[in-house]
Amino acid sequence: MTGTGGRRIAVVTGGSRGIGRAIATRLAGSKHAVVVNYAANMSAADSLVDEIEASGGIAIAHRADVSDVDQVTAMFERVSADLGPVSVLVNNAGITRDNLLMRMSVEEFDEVIAVNLRSAFLCTKAALRDMIRARWGRVISIASVAGVTGNAGQANYAASKAGLIGFSKSVAREYGARNITANVVAPGFINTDMTSALGEKALSVVAGAITLGRFGEAGEVAAAVDFLASDDAGYITGQVLSVDGGMAL
Ligand code: NAP
User: Model pTM?
Assistant: First the structure.
């Protein structure tokens, strides 16, 4: 680690808002130097870096579309030069382009697969080099309850999230012998910009399907990620941890 005061370096894709922001904040609080990746919203990313630095942490913001191989390569080169080797990767960036299958365009399908799944392939590949060298690493991917149960209107999104589960289990098998773990956190409905688009009626229908009777908070997902990133979770790999208030029971 170069210049991070003994902190492990964690890259959080889509770390500027919502669940990723809570994960970045939480990891910074548990002594990680955090890379806040974002796609477009520079002010959100910069404000988070300011918050982390104000509380004594270390963070940098880096704009990169994580579905683009050149931008991902450039991001990991910068992390290596500015901070040092990556120990923790959180594949969090994600989008929805919901539509019924018969109306779903090829573009809607491909864009969701690229941002939600190809991104994990690109970022994990880029981060593994450092982890293999260090013989220590944590790859944590944020899937969704939709990837476990399927969801009408989300064939593209559910496929991308189910794909993340198979991807993560394969990484776990390929790199377990190098002391690298790969796990998935599958949130249910969490209060973020992504879910604020749902109308009042949809919100009450969804809440009725959740065992705990409420939406989750981003910090509740971040707590699970922080645990999986820790030394305490060293014997857990290839798992899918649902943080969904019992929705997929
Ligand atoms: P959000 O509030 O919409 O935030 C999305 C984040 O991803 C933003 O930081 C955004 O950056 C970034 N992003 C989007 N496209 C990107 C790209 N191509 N490259 C890099 N960054 C990109 O979403 P969220 O609700 O926090 O969701 C985070 C993850 O949790 C997603 O994978 C989502 O599928 C999953 N999830 C969410 C829920 C939920 O209920 N909210 C439930 C299950 C799973 P900008 O700020 O620059 O746009």
Answer: 0.98
